[in-house]
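User: My collaborator sent over this chain with a note saying "see what the structure looks like." That's all I know about it. Can you take a look?
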Amino acid sequence: MGVYVNPGTKNMEIDIDDEFYVDKSLLVKVLNTKLNKKDRFICVSRPRRFGKTMAANMIAAYYSKDCDSHDVFSDLKISKDSSFEENINKYTVIQLDMNDVVTNKEDNSVTEYINKEVVSELRKIYPSALPEENVSLSKAIKEIFSLTGDRFIFVIDEYDVIIRDQKYSSELDGYLTFLVSLFKNSATAPAIAMAYLTGIMPIIKEKTQSKLNNFTEYTMIDPDDMAPFMGFTEDEVKSLAYQSGMEFEELKRWYDGYNLEGLEIYSPKSVISAIEDRKCSDYWIQTSSYEAVTDYISLDFEGLKEDVISMFTGNRVEVRTSLYRNTISFDTKDDVLTYLIHLGYLAYDADTSSCFIPNNEIKDMWALSIERAKGYNDVFQMIRDSKKLLESTWNGDEEAVARGVGKAHMEACSILGYNNEGSFQSAIHLAYYYAKSCYTIVNELPAGKGFADCAFIPYKPDVPVIIIELKKDDSVENAIDQIKNRKYPEALEKYKDNLLLVAISYDSKTKEHSCRIEKAQ
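Assistant: Without extra context I'll predict from the sequence alone. Here is the result:
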């Protein structure tokens, strides 16, 4: 077993030794259907900490020659599949972690380092096929295949680090040429049984001019049959919650939100960290920099700030993803939003071609980004004041609530228009940002004989339910009467002893807001 060639099972053994290991081995079943076929060139992109490296280690462990992987896979789902014995330990695997490569290459270029180190290992395995001292990797695998008939599987983890990190920009052309020489070269392609690239970004559409268009791409926008392997599914999280004794609904509130091909997908790193620590928290921020979002939402693209604030207040915004070139240079707000979808800071709804902030954990990261982004000072101030506003609501301070909501309404109106009813509802989400720490906020809650404009449903004890009715050019007295006459509180009967009725009205001419707060009887 080598470092890069046929690395064996050592890395996977470390992965599966974890107490809360989740069996994703059926990914191998999917890959077995693609071996030695036209669609054997695969690029799977997903956010940081979504299990890319564990998948790469598993693939390498399963296919690698010169070892016996049966014991490692014996208790996993793939061992029961009919394709298991057919392909296990049958291929020469070349596994590269590009983060490792750029760290260790010293004064060599990336391609020089790979050619040198990998060919050196191959020469030890196939000495008669590689007598020359200096030979490229593409030529080496061609010669080995011609002499022995052995086919190769390439597993390249974080393949896109050179594309995403500007400090390697001088190496980009050479690296892309290297990939093309391996995977789009008619002389080497027959020697490759499969190429599995994984990273945050899909295949770059710039510079290569579609030279790598033989790759099938599976992304957070279009995952296809890779969807169950892009993160933890809801059933897997339920199983982990049961195993650990944690509340599934709490994990769902914090980490759900990515819907891929009808599957609810969770961030593996966040879920496992929460289970190990026995509490839900912002683990994403500990492993990713919020500056990535801050820098991009500060860009002066028309409509970008408006879309950011709209999403932060709970809305979805349309996005065109098809024109993005998968680089870190942007021409439009759609490029920025598409990039943030790939990074996992936004979720994507394919049915409506829209994006949104997926869950509580990511929304906290957005709050930090907005705090430091250019042009968002007013929004940050409202986020900071939102705890006081919630306390004012609990205490029945009607004037303070009218002021706080009015300030948020003005900010929302700058985006959606003052007389747009949606802007008023958005203002509630913005003004009450802190409320997410103890409430689920529901718009248009079916209640009694109608729909309550907003309802704050607590998931923590000893805080009151809040029903909010919003009115334009009408009195708060009429709004309170509507809540009572349409029997909205009856939908929340179990909270009847701790339920606040809140009416907020604004005058479209004077722009003044008023508030009435009553405890339900």
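A starting point for your reply to your collaborator: The mean pLDDT is 90.
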